[in-house]
């Protein structure tokens, strides 16, 4: 089978592949997704390494054609130095590749990619500005490299192997340091005209609101992310509110140590204030999902990322807020809202799988 052109990704080719034209011709939306899955099963069966580059860590794993992780490793993200990030990726790939026969590497990176999947145009949380990451890594790794947005990689994994299976119109939301997003439409990643679709976290949901790292104010991720949860908890604790005593006790009185993770753990343990904070974030989450439903009309939202460790404490309020704010509520079908199935490994699974199947999808 032909080795894929590095960086070419499902859904990004301007001229539809011949098999895709045959598959979609005359097919319903539901049957199209089923037929596309059948085509993907014909792709290369070898092993690939997926690398998920986030704001705080770089995780990598060897992934087989069924989405199973055979081995994995991780490092902290040296976010201020692009060359240092590349070196961490090289170290991880060499470490994992020593015990396996690897044919390709998929990189899921936090940022906006160009349409060809060669350059990271901008990353709100990393020091990348027009960074030719794919070509740099391909030169260092001496293997085919595919580059995609980390949220796109996670969304692809959920569609292929997780909670999004069977969906012809799927929107995935990743809640972590910020908010990432991905759309899988009829078996392809939808990235828009310029390759930067899916940045749902930067829709302005509160004009003049909290300053965002992207440069704007009032972005959705400033109200419905792990960072937002931690910030709200710190503000409450800094005011020495009597309802924040459990939060302060958990960090020995050091307000600066309060994070979204700590709030989530306290909420799961039953702390009413932490549960209230999570409910507030859930309400913002549901409002943003209602906006996306009005624009995109998916069949399902899959919610993943570290914040989803809170489970129904977060998603329950989000469903209520979604139902309350949905345009045309009561007179239209409503998308399902479900927690992701693959957990924190979705990004590396999706990146590896995209690197493996892209050659089949573009021949």
- Count of DSSP H/I helices: 11
The count of β-strands is 13
> Could you report the average pLDDT, rounded to the nearest whole number?
86
Low-confidence stretches: 1-34, 359-363
Strand order of the largest sheet: 3-2-1-4-8
Main beta sheet: strand number and arrangement?
5 strands, mixed
Helix content: 25-40%
Order of helices and strands: HHEEEHEEEEHEHEEEHHHHEHEH
The radius of gyration is 20 Å
Give the distance, in angstroms, between the N- and C-terminal Cα atoms: 9 Å
What oligomeric assembly is this protein in? single chain
* Structural class designation: alpha/beta
Shape: globular
Strand content: 15-25%
Can you walk me through this structure?
By secondary structure, this protein is an alpha/beta fold. Helix content is about 40%, strand content about 20%. It has helices at about 20-25, 30-40, 80-95, 135-140, 150-160, 225-240, 245-250, 260-270, 270-295, 310-325, 345-360; strands spanning about 45-55, 55-65, 70-75, 100-110, 110-115, 120, 130, 145-150, 170-175, 180-185, 190, 300-305, 335-340. A five-stranded mixed β-sheet has the order 3-2-1-4-8. Strand 12 (about 300-305), helix 10 (about 310-325) and strand 13 (about 335-340) form a beta-alpha-beta unit. Helix 6 (about 225-240) packs antiparallel against helix 9 (about 270-295) and helix 9 (about 270-295) packs across helix 10. The chain is globular. The termini are close together. The model is unreliable at about 1-35 and about 360-363 (pLDDT under 50).
